[in-house]
UniProtKB/TrEMBL annotation:
<feature type="domain" description="GmrSD restriction endonucleases C-terminal">
    <location>
        <begin position="652"/>
        <end position="772"/>
    </location>
</feature>
<dbReference type="Pfam" id="PF03235">
    <property type="entry name" value="GmrSD_N"/>
</dbReference>
<dbReference type="InterPro" id="IPR011089">
    <property type="entry name" value="GmrSD_C"/>
</dbReference>
<dbReference type="InterPro" id="IPR004919">
    <property type="entry name" value="GmrSD_N"/>
</dbReference>
<feature type="domain" description="GmrSD restriction endonucleases N-terminal">
    <location>
        <begin position="17"/>
        <end position="342"/>
    </location>
</feature>
<protein>
    <recommendedName>
        <fullName>DUF262 domain-containing protein</fullName>
    </recommendedName>
</protein>
<dbReference type="Pfam" id="PF07510">
    <property type="entry name" value="GmrSD_C"/>
</dbReference>
Length: 816
């Protein structure tokens, strides 16, 4: 017989009293639930919604304050409760999947009401029952005692025996444990601790003793969540006190006058489920600010909170169904991330009693440490989504969607594959931890933190590695993280010594290959050119042109006939080179230098990607000198003559800001050909890296004046710069001294200043070819390519880790 919907879940709307005062009920927060985190604004909203509903109740007896849906699992077998003393557990445990913030705040409200009503009851009655000759007083006393009893059963249950008979209604995994034995009970979480301490005091104090004024303080070392919880408790208490005394609160409505309660029978029935004594009603009409009035207002508010605040409680069959229900019902709350729901699976697999000291715990702390950088909400959700997308690609080459249900299922299914093997499970969690560490400290370090390769010697973070990481990050080339992560992870966990050194060197080789491939691929396309699919195929080992196995840690589906996963930098270089050089339309289509130059020269690289353009220019300028045979151009110089293709060069935007030589907008003194098409001025041949501070003087000046500035800005000394500027006889927006101070020996600028001829589109294209050749010369060894000048398609052959290119006009595509 097919499963019926009612077997999967049931939903019931319940008042707070019906939910919390259910005999034998225990609410349980599983380990993945976040700490308490409501702010003052949310507590004010809770109070305001309650007050608004109370006001409406005076006009319509069916008014409720509905606070949404709480998703739970009815844990009949107590499988979610850890730690546990099975004979001691409440008879009905509801594990809270969603709604813990609201439930915790409502419990704070009920405890605060109970405490205040006890305080004000003492002021009125002094612990004595009123004389029968005072029927109004007797009625008020009766309503007060009744509401106190109902309130107390909502936040704790008293067992009939044991030396610790007080059970808080709500406890948290790991931190708390229900038990009637004082030696075994444990209530360390902020919410359970607050409820328990107050409940024990209130339960022990007889009515004839002045009650304790409960003002909790955060325990030392308890964490921010306890501090937040106690702040919210204090704010609720202060607000209730003002409301009861009829003192206005700017953000909140006031309580309805006692005269409405006294004169409207339906209002009384809706609040108390019965009519009030007529003598009490007459008295209430006469009260204003007396202690009795304050007490009655608190009783009135408590009655509404218990009987007219409503929640829809959904009980799911199990966790998976409960999360599915949550996703479909949640419209305003912040869902748990896929990592938060994954964490308890790790805990259960490691066994709760062993988890705290396990390596799995350390791995999960590393992931949590990274995610803790983000505020709960969309920032945390996005960070988790991106992290798991990267992890899935690195782990099984899965193109994981960012949808929360899909990510939860992926983490569950892939982890469950390893549950039975301690070694396999440890390797899986280690890889997840490596992902978070690499993303959080290498790819995108925290604000003001230095980029580093955690777990590797400081020497591993070479200047080239820094440069590549900075470029790829600025390019937002997140697809590159997964392959880089594989080499990083292998290096981190390699044995110290030669093996570690080899793996560190492999990481640098890999990042250089990935960077060169990305630059050369993107420089020849208007968009990304579907580059992501190339990386995904490499991770999966699909359609390899070189026979390279998968780079992902595992195959999605084990196949004995397919190559095993491999982390080999030289193999990666060969595969990337083959894909870039292949003439097959699925791949790069750049088989030779001529095709690269033709494609990159024609594109408006400035508008396509500024990080890409800047990287190409820095690569071209590095250790170059002015070309005396071709004024305006540069050529390769000696090593160290003008270094700029470095991490310092990348971050030195003071001297290396992208500027247009011919201005973006047409102005006098420039060849008309630059403006015949809107894209021409954005081509690489018309771009230069120059001090951004000089832009006010460079501006839209004609070429004859602009080249003077280029010569001065690229001068070898400040004195030379001043001579150039003074001899020009030109006036600039900035003083000669200011401009001279900006000078820095930059051969590419000095070369521009040496061109006497007109700056025109033809020379721009000639310059572009020179720059791109220089950049190619800098990057070709990173990828292991040696393109020929020929325009015919070559065959790419790798010999001894080098690339030879032979002419083969009959070849339809590159072979290896």
């Amino acid at each position: 017989m097919p499963t019926q919907a009612k077997e999967i879940f049931e939903a019931q709307s319940k008042s707070l009293r019906e939910l919390l005062s259910d005999n034998g009920l225990g609410l349980y927060l599983p380990p993945y639930q976040r700490p308490y985190g409501w702010g003052k604004d949310k507590v004010e909203k809770l109070l305001d919604d309650t007050l608004h509903g109370l006001k409406n109740l005076g006009e319509a007896s069916d008014s409720f304050t509905f606070l949404g849906t709480v998703i739970t699992i009815h844990d009949v077998n107590h499988v979610t409760v850890q730690p546990i003393l099975k004979p001691e557990v409440p008879s009905k445990v509801l594990t809270v999947i969603d709604g813990q913030q609201r439930l915790s705040s409502l419990l704070l409200l009920l405890v605060s009401l109970h405490n205040l009503i006890r305080q004000h009851s003492w002021k009125v009655f002094k612990g004595k029952t009123p004389d029968s000759t005072d029927p109004a007083g007797v009625a008020l006393y009766s309503e007060t005692v009744s509401i106190l009893q109902t309130l107390s059963t909502a936040f704790y249950e008293r067992k009939n025996f044991g030396d610790a008979p007080i059970y808080p209604r709500l406890i948290r995994a790991f931190a708390d444990q229900w038990s009637k034995d004082a030696k075994l009970k444990l209530y360390e979480s902020p919410i359970a601790n607050l409820i328990y301490i107050y409940s024990v005091k209130a339960d022990a104090e007889p009515p004839t003793v002045k009650p304790t004024d409960f003002r909790p303080k955060a325990r030392s070392g308890a964490g921010e969540s306890e501090s937040d919880l106690i702040k919210r408790f204090s704010e609720i208490r202060a607000a209730l006190t003002k409301l009861a005394q009829r003192k206005p609160i700017e953000e909140l409505e006031g309580l309805p006058p006692l005269s409405i309660l006294a004169t409207q029978i339906e209002f009384q029935r809706a609040l108390f489920n019965h009519e009030l004594d007529p003598k009490l009603c007459t008295w209430l009409c006469e009260l204003e600010d007396e202690p009795e009035a304050v007490l009655m207002r608190l009783v009135l508010f408590a009655a509404y909170a218990l009987n007219r605040i409503a929640l829809t409680v959904v009980q799911g069959k199990d966790e998976d169904y409960a999360f599915t229900i949550f996703e479909s019902l949640n419209t305003t709350g912040e869902p748990l991330t896929a990592f938060e729901t994954f964490l308890p699976r790790v805990v259960m697999a490691e066994r709760v009693q062993d988890y705290r000291g396990s390596s799995a715990h350390e791995r999960m702390k590393a992931v949590q440490s990274y995610l803790d950088r983000f505020d709960v909400g969309e920032k945390l959700q996005n960070a988790t989504r991106e992290l798991l997308v990267t992890f899935a690609l690195a782990e099984t080459a899965k193109k994981l969607s960012k949808r929360l249900p899909d990510q939860r299922v992926y983490m569950k299914d892939t982890f469950d594959r390893h549950r039975e093997s301690d070694d396999d499970r440890a390797a899986y969690l280690r890889h997840l931890s490596d992902t978070a560490t690499f993303v959080g400290t290498t790819w995108e370090p925290a604000k003001d933190a230095t980029r580093q390769l955690v777990g590797l010697p400081t020497s591993a973070m070479t200047d080239t590695v820094k440069l590549c990481l900075a470029f790829l990050k600025d390019l937002n080339h997140t697809i590159a993280i997964a392959p880089l992560l594989r080499f990083y992870s292998e290096a981190v966990h390699a044995e110290e010594g030669e093996e570690r050194d080899r793996r560190v060197a492999e990481f640098e080789t890999a990042i250089k290959a990935i960077t060169a491939f990305t630059v050369l691929w993107r420089a020849t396309r208007r968009g990304t050119g579907n580059i992501d699919s190339q990386y995904r195929a490499i991770m999966a080992g699909d359609s390899s042109l070189t026979g390279m196995g998968p780079l992902a840690r595992q195959r999605a589906v084990p196949d004995q006939d397919e190559p095993e996963p491999m982390v080999d930098a030289e193999a990666l270089k060969k595969e990337l080179a083959a894909r870039l050089s292949s003439t097959d339309k699925k791949y790069g289509g750049i088989p030779n230098l001529a095709s690269f130059l033709a494609a990159a020269t024609a594109l408006p690289l400035y508008t396509i990607s500024r990080p890409l353009t800047r990287f190409l220019l820095l690569a071209a300028y590095h250790d170059t000198i002015e070309d005396p045979d071709h004024p305006g151009l540069i050529k390769q110089g000696k090593v160290g003559v003008a270094p700029c293709f470095t991490s310092d060069g990348w971050f030195d935007e003071t001297h290396f800001t992208i500027e247009h030589i011919a201005p973006q907008q047409e102005t006098g003194g420039w060849h008309k050909g630059f403006y015949s098409e809107k894209e021409i001025v954005h081509k690489i041949g018309n771009l230069v890296l120059a001090p951004g501070a000089a832009n006010a003087s460079l501006s839209s000046r004609p070429w004859t004046e602009k080249k003077v500035l280029y010569a001065a800005l690229g001068a070898t000394t400040t004195g030379e710069a001043e001579i150039i500027l003074n001899e020009s006889g030109l006036t600039f927006a900035q003083s000669t001294q200011e401009l001279a101070q900006m000078s820095h020996y930059l051969p590419h600028l000095r070369a521009l200043g040496q061109r006497d001829a007109e700056w025109d589109p033809a020379f721009m294209d000639q310059r572009a070819a020179v720059l791109l050749r220089l950049a190619y010369a800098r990057l070709k060894d990173w990828l292991g390519i040696a393109w020929s000048e020929s325009t015919t398609d070559p065959v790419v052959r790798h010999v001894d880790d080098e690339v030879e290119l032979d002419e083969d006009e009959d070849s339809a595509e590159n072979t290896v």
